[in-house]
């Protein structure tokens, strides 16, 4: 019914009224017909997030053979982001967002940690807000779901062999394709194919709720001490959240749920991937068991 931005609109409206306002500063807009399928519906874009994949049993075996699920969170502060940018060709490092850099890093480390076969294709779904991608734009105050999840796809072998920037470009390209026509095509696909689910085997999904403002909601007692998800307790689902670590540094926290053996390998790959002394990052990883 809503996405994170729509949910934050509701929370902020409640907070404003709690502080004495007669009405919210942004009034809600229903208008669900704005995202209805066309007549007749027609799929005009390539939606790789709905492709059928084989070897689902093999994927399930890989997960189950690595032990019980545990949770661990990984922090990306200014040092980590600078380290990732240093892996990009000089002069182009500022072209990529934190989201693109972090997602490409997670993609690489996950494929390594799960020890996937070189010939397998792996997908990274990027949750994209489509509000500003229509012409004319979706009205301010529309609180319905305007999210799509385009897929970046690559073989494991190529992910490991190509430079880091290649994976970052794939993420950027997938995000950039989700303009208005892509969203219209997606609405039509839902009608034509009966609302199929995205393919979850050999796939990961990443979303960003950082900078949405969960921690800035004020019901009259000041800003929240914490705002965001409780944890990444679904395998393959990654969420980028605003976070202040124990040293008072602002950055992005990624809660992650993986089988125990894979988590140990992921933490090592994460440390090895970033060009810096490992000792500087020991305080940045916090582990909790489910």
Structure description:
The structure is a single chain. With 290 residues, the protein is of the alpha+beta class. It has a single domain, classed as Chloramphenicol Acetyltransferase (2-Layer Sandwich), CATH 3.30.559. The chain is built from eight helices and nine strands. It has helices spanning 4-18, 56-64, 78-85, 98-113, 156-161, 164-176, 180-192, 260-273, and strands spanning 69-76, 121-126, 128-129, 147-148, 151-155, 203-208, 237-244, 250-259, 285-289. The strands form two sheets. The protein has a seven-stranded mixed beta sheet with strand order 5-2-6-7-8-1-9. α4 packs across α8 (260-273). The relative contact order is 0.22. The model is unreliable at 277-290 (pLDDT under 50).
Structural topology:
Elements: H1 4-18, H2 56-64, E1 69-76, H3 78-85, H4 98-113, E2 121-126, E3 128-129, E4 147-148, E5 151-155, H5 156-161, H6 164-176, H7 180-192, E6 203-208, E7 237-244, E8 250-259, H8 260-273, E9 285-289
Parallel strand pairs: 2-6, 6-7
Antiparallel strand pairs: 1-8, 1-9, 2-5, 3-4, 7-8
Helix pairs in contact: 4-6, 4-8
Q: Termini distance?
A: 29 Å
Q: Kindly name the structural category.
A: alpha+beta
CATH superfamily: Chloramphenicol acetyltransferase-like domain
Mean pLDDT: 88
The CATH class, by name, is Alpha Beta
Keywords:
alpha+beta; two-stranded antiparallel ribbon; 290 residues; Chloramphenicol Acetyltransferase; 9 strands
């Amino acid at each position: 019914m809503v996405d994170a931005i729509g949910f934050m609109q509701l929370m902020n409206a409640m907070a404003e009224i709690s502080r004495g306002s007669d009405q919210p500063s942004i009034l809600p807009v229903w208008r669900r017909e704005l995202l209805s399928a066309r007549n007749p519906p027609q799929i005009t874009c390539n939606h790789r997030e709905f492709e059928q994949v084989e070897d689902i049993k093999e994927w399930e075996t890989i997960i189950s053979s690595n032990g019980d699920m545990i949770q661990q969170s990984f922090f990306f502060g200014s040092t980590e982001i600078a380290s990732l940018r240093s892996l990009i060709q000089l002069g182009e490092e500022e072209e990529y967002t934190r989201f693109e850099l972090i997602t490409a890093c997670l993609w690489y480390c996950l494929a390594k940690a799960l020890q996937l076969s070189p010939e397998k294709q792996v997908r990274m779904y990027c949750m994209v807000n489509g509000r500003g991608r229509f012409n004319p734009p979706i009205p301010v105050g529309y609180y319905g779901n305007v999210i799509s999840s385009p897929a970046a796809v690559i073989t494991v072998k190529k992910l490991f062999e190509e430079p880091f920037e290649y994976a970052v470009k794939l993420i950027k390209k997938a995000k950039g394709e989700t303009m208005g026509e892509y969203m219209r095509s997606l609405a039509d696909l839902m009608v034509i194919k009966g609302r199929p689910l995205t393919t979850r085997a050999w796939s990961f999904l990443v979303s960003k709720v950082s900078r949405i403002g969960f921690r800035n909601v004020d019901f009259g007692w000041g800003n929240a001490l914490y705002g965001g998800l409780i944890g990444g307790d679904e395998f393959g689902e990654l969420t980028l959240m605003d976070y202040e670590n124990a040293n008072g540094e602002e950055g992005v926290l990624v809660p992650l749920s993986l089988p125990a053996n894979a988590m140990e390998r992921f933490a090592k790959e994460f440390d090895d991937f970033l060009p810096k002394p490992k000792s500087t990052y020991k305080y940045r990883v916090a582990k909790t068991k489910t």
